[in-house]
Amino acid sequence: MYAAAAQGFSGPLGSTVRGTTAVKSPSDLARGWSRPLLLPVARLFSHIGLGPNAISIIGLAAYGATGVMIGLGSLFWAGIMLAVFGPLDAVDGLVARENGMVSRFGAFLDSAVDRYAEFFLFVGLMIHTSSDTDGWGWWAPLLTLSAMSGSLLVSYTRARAEALGFTCNVGLLTRFERILILVVGLIFDLIYPMLIILAVFTHATAIQRIIHVYRQKDAH
């Protein structure tokens, strides 16, 4: 992601906390193996004059459209759209590095856009589940709200920790896993299993990160 690009991917990777080497998250691993696939796309965008910030905004618009499709009940196509446009999260960073356009503002914009993108998806899910006919009743919006708040807290805990000088590259459900779960849940119409997984494990991830930072407090 662009935020990682601004750090040159050097942040917490390979750092140590009390003598233990930090392990790469699935997001970092996915970024590594997807780079050869996404690099041609990044170069194409560069060729037509699209900068990383513009790509971030285009991605946000695509997430907004996906949220609308979810709200309208077109879950399968929303999942396909999310699978297609989700990788733009990584493409903007590649464009920035390939063209020497990495900037602190770009990293900040990308982080803000990512939060809005998730918000759009969950608003769509809130609208969709508000007309629940599967007998979930008030559990439907509660699950959606819990999943949304957990997702935002996962991102916030890392951003705040790293702003204070801690490493926080840990967690069960990073953004990569959350988007993957959303794609699968939407395409196969597994809305409630998807929401339960997100509601439980996003908060578990946020707590995991809080504990991880707590263990570093004496070193700072």
Q: Could you give the topology of this structure?
A:
Elements: H1 2-6, E1 16-17, E2 20-21, H2 26-47, H3 52-71, H4 75-85, H5 88-98, H6 104-130, H7 139-163, H8 175-187, H9 191-214
Antiparallel strand pairs: 1-2
Helix pairs in contact: 2-5, 3-4, 3-5, 3-6, 4-8, 6-7, 7-9, 8-9
Structure description:
This protein has about 220 residues and is mainly α. The chain contains nine helices and two strands. Strands 1-2 form a two-stranded antiparallel sheet. The protein is globular and about 55 Å long.
Strand fraction equals under 5%
Number of helices: 9
Total strand segments: 2
- What is the CA-CA span between the terminal residues? 27 Å
Inertia-based shape: globular
Rounded radius of gyration (Å): 18 Å
Helix-strand topology string: HEEHHHHHHHH
Mean pLDDT: 87
For the sheet with most strands, the description reads: 2 strands, antiparallel
Uncertain runs are 1-21
Strand order in the largest sheet:
1-2
